Amino acid sequence: MQRSILKINIANELDVVLAYKRAMQLSERLGMAQANQTKFATAVSEICRNVVEYVGSGSIQFGLAEANSLSYLEALVTDRGRGIGNLDSILSRKEYNNLSRGTGIINSKKLVDLFEIQSDFEKGTRVRLLKKLPSFGPGITKDLVEKWVIEFDKEADISPYAEIKKQNMQLLEVLEQLRLRNLETEQQLHEIRRLNTQLQQSNEEINQLLEDRDKKNRLLQDANQHLDAFAHTVSHDLRAPLQNINGIATALEACIEADQMEEVSKRMLPMLRLQTQKMDRLITGILAYSLAGHHNIQKKVVDLQVLLHQVITSLNVPATFTIEVQPELPVLYTQEIYLYQVFSNLISNAIKYHDRPEGARISIHADITPEQLYFSVTDNGPGILPEAQQQIFNKYQSGEQHYTPNSTGFGLSIITRILKEKGTTIWVESEGRGSRFVFTWPGTEIVNEQ
Question: Coiled-coil annotation: which residues (predicted)?
Fold first, then answer.
């Protein structure tokens, strides 16, 4: 439904100014915001100015219209010119020069809510501009429209200078509003960028936490696998002496019943004591292994010469063994129990696995560099096969090349855990007879003579 309000003939610049003013007045009385009033009036003046410039005369009809259940203020500008031959080209342009033809059409289209244009050769052009009315605007009646028309007719003559000045002031006001909105938009964009940066950092932190979690899960899986292997080995090694003790106890019961206790006990009791000692060593080894690598062990000044003397005297070294210790070993500020365990296990292994006690020789040396210490324990024993040289560090059991009843299989595992805690390593060198175990230690723990 359409309802006409007033019509203005367009023939000169003064008519263009009048059309602008009426557009402002009508949009204001219909409850439009200031910015929308200026947009609608500017679109009207652009099209009317095109009529004056390119055709010479035309008209503009203001009215009310409805579309899609919404109410609009309508301005219908018509002329009887030759038409716009390149209208499709004008409407399809993406960039415009303010001095080129068609700029007014494009600018007007941007300023209104609905824009329609029809141009036929030698039949003129018809432009329809619609601006949406607010829902809270006044009710429009025929009497109200007639009242507005009477008021418009009674107005004094329009001063082009005054109207243009007023238009400029209104445009400046709209520009200021746009500037403030642009500043507000820039602040919002800055805040969005800041939030995006925080979100990206949070995502990176979450990804890092997920990576850490996956890494810890993998470590936990590895630990569980090691624990399974450890439990299997320990259960196997503990069952053997228990079964032997059970067998000896059964034999002792039989001897008691047969009244042969004195004779058999001389043979059985040493065997029983041997099995209990084996279990004791095994349990002691398990405890040492479980304690290896604890973080809360305090450091102290350690004289390696004194430490090695304590280690050697604590071991049951056969009289046929010769142990050589390099003189002038360094003094360290470190965990004494760690070094004690490492040297004790390496020297003890060299004694236990030696197949020729007569003429057995063990030597201990240290090579010092600013970054690391290289300690070595060398023996002239049977040596270690190449395929077993890595296995002896990875498993919780001794190699099967040379079985020793006093071995628990925990020695090298304890050493490996301690050196992992220190961030160092151990390896073995063996070709034919003899073995040389080398392990590193942080050079930063050397105590200077000063």
Answer: 161-226
Strand ranges in 111-234 using DSSP code E only, listed in sequence order: 114-120, 124-132
Q: What tokens were used for 374? A: 């290289």
Percent of the chain with pLDDT over 90: 38
Task: Kindly give the interhelix angle for 261-291 and 411-422, rounded to the nearest 10 degrees.
Answer: 10
Q: Among the residues of 258-355, which ranges form H helices?
A: 261-291, 304-314, 336-352
One domain, residues 197 and 218: yes
Q: What is the pLDDT of residue 127?
A: 94
- Provide the b/e sequence for 26-60 (b: ≥16 CB within 10 Å): bbebbebeeebbbbbbbbbbbbbbbbbeebeebbb
Other CB atoms within 10 Å distance of the CB of residue 119 = 20
Q: According to the 3-state scheme, what is the secondary structure of 220-235?
A: HHHHHHHHHHHHHHHH
Domain CATH for 105: 3.30.565.10
Tokens of 398: 């001794």
Separation of alpha carbons 273 and 281, rounded Å: 12
How confident is the model at residue 379, as a pLDDT? Answer: 96
User: 202 — phi, psi (to 5°)?
Assistant: -65, -40
* 174 and 32 belong to one structural domain: no
Same domain, 7 and 96: yes
Query: pLDDT tens digits, residue range 26-80?
Result: 999 999 999 899 999 999 999 999 999 999 999 999 999 988 888 999 999 999 9
Question: Domain limits at 82?
Answer: 2-158
- 320 and 231 in one domain? no
Could you give the 3-state DSSP secondary structure of residue 449? coil
State whether 123 and 190 are in the same domain. no
Give pLDDT tens digits for 67-77. 888 899 999 99
Q: What's the pTM value of the predicted model, to 2 decimals?
A: 0.43
Question: Is residue 448 helix, strand or coil?
Answer: coil
Residue 416 has pLDDT above 80, yes or no: yes
